[in-house]
Amino acid sequence: MVDGLFGTGSAVAELTASPAIVLLATGVTWWTVFIEATIAITFLWPESRGLSRLRDGTLLAFAAST
């Protein structure tokens, strides 16, 4: 219970997660790890080698998914 605008009480909210939310959170977490690692690798790769061609695409994929 909260007393007034800046009350001294506390409020308690219980959060529950369904299996679908857990699956979604896990998928989004792994997608973030994957896309950020891919961006780092492609931007750190020397330009004279082939992997650097993927820079723009990975950055656009990150921006679109964000």
Order of helices and strands: HH
> How far is the N terminus from the C terminus?
37 Å
- Molecular shape: elongated
Oligomeric category: single chain
Q: Look at the helices and sheets and give the structural class.
A: mainly alpha
- Strand residue percentage: under 5%
Number of strands: 0
Runs with pLDDT <50, length 5+?
A: none
Summed up, the domain count is 1
Rg, rounded, reads 21 Å
What is the helix content?
55-70%
Query: Average pLDDT across residues?
Result: 86
How would you sum up the major sheet?
Answer: none
Number of helices: 2
Structural descriptors:
about 55% helix; about 70 residues; mainly alpha
Task: Describe this structure as you would to a colleague.
There is one protein chain. The model has no long low-confidence stretch (mean pLDDT 86). The chain contains two helices and no strands. Helix 1 (19-44) packs antiparallel against helix 2 (55-65). The protein has one domain (19-65). The protein has helices at 19-44, 55-65. The two termini are 37 Å apart. It is 56% helix and 0% strand. It has 66 residues and is mainly α. The longest helix has 26 residues, at 19-44.
